[in-house]
Amino acid sequence: MIEQLYPRLEINAAHLKENIETVVRKCAARGVSVTGVVKGMTGDIECCRLYVDSGCTMIGTSRLDQLEAIREDGIDLPTMLIRIPMLSHADEVVRLADYSLNSEVRVLEALNKAALRRGKSHKVILMSDLGDLREGFWDKEELVRVAVCVEREMPGLELAGVGTNLGCYGSIQATPDKLAELVATAEAVEEMIGRRLEIISGGATSTYLRILDGNISERINHLRIGELILNARDLEFFYGADLSDMHKDVFTLKAEIIEVKDKPTYPQGEIGVDAFGRTQEYTDRGIRRRAIAAIGKVDYSDFDDLFPKDKGIEIIGASSDHTILDIEDAEREIRVGDILDFGIDYASLVFLSNCRDVRHVIV
Ligand SMILES: *Cc1c(COP(=O)(O)O)cnc(C)c1O
Hints:
This protein is an alpha/beta fold. It is 30% helix and 23% strand. The chain has twelve helices and 16 strands. It has helices at 13-28, 45-49, 64-72, 90-96, 105-118, 140-153, 176-193, 208-213, 227-230, 234-239, 297-300, 346-352, and strands at residues 8-11, 33-37, 58-61, 79-81, 99-102, 122-128, 157-164, 199-201, 222-225, 251-264, 287-293, 306-308, 314-318, 323-326, 339-344, 359-362. Strands 1, 10, 11, 12, 13, 14, 15 and 16 form an eight-stranded mixed sheet that branches. Strands 8-7-6-5-4-3-2-9 form an eight-stranded parallel sheet. The mean pLDDT is 97. The site of pyridoxal-5'-phosphate (PLP) has 14 residues, from strand 9 and helix 9.
């Protein structure tokens, strides 16, 4: 095994923990409990441990292998599978998740059978699609009918509640009227089954804006929060929210410099296509000092999602394994073997944390 010191993803445990606690506290003040969603950092187990005793009532992720690792580690929190289950995974879902989000009757039937076989009760939340057009029942009456069916005819399942997901595919915001639609559907279910639902799950990070604005419906009592805790960037960057009480530096990427040279900025010769078959534009800025970092698109996907921490350094391009930096205006001398720090956003975090060549280091 080659010892791999760099690239590395440094995880500030104290800041992550404080972010969890801040979000839990602010949500609790509005009667909302929080499932900590850990798919953004590929369920890094040391990060997951920080969700225990942080006030989160559950830990959730989209992938069963991550839930399995959480279980095997002995993390003592109820688990939630947040991607609607594959039919072929019904048995594993019941084994590994206490709760799952659902939108298909055939899957619910399979979960019911699996739960009965295992002598376990599995809790389900039925998803309502309010216009974002990813998962969920589109027809609200159908959702109510299926809820009644789960309640009365699926003894292996417990109808825990209803939920929605917004701001993922259709970019639809969690406005008060959308959440009112969800509450109305939940109340229609309650009317039919003659009891209150345990959970009305109002969405993810994007619904936190309603917590900040103080206009979340009082019947919404649960959110599934990933990005806000891990990165705390999107709501401020895209919606101008005040996240001054959140740490934005939980994750830092560190990469090693493998070449430093003065080179022309305009390629020399006949221009064709780049490593990925794309036609690129180049601006001639004369000879400038450049560095190459030993990390590339294979690790983070898109270099627009990396932010060099050194002032005066700019990423000018990348291929699979190389990231090219303009360091002409850098405030310090950059040499071969130096380590550069980068801030990252959620888009690069999902790749970097899932890349086996990137070491995770808790600091
Ligand atoms: C990813 C996901 C979340 C968490 O989303 P964030 O925007 O990261 O908070 C919540 N619910 C579902 C269904 C998801 O897929």
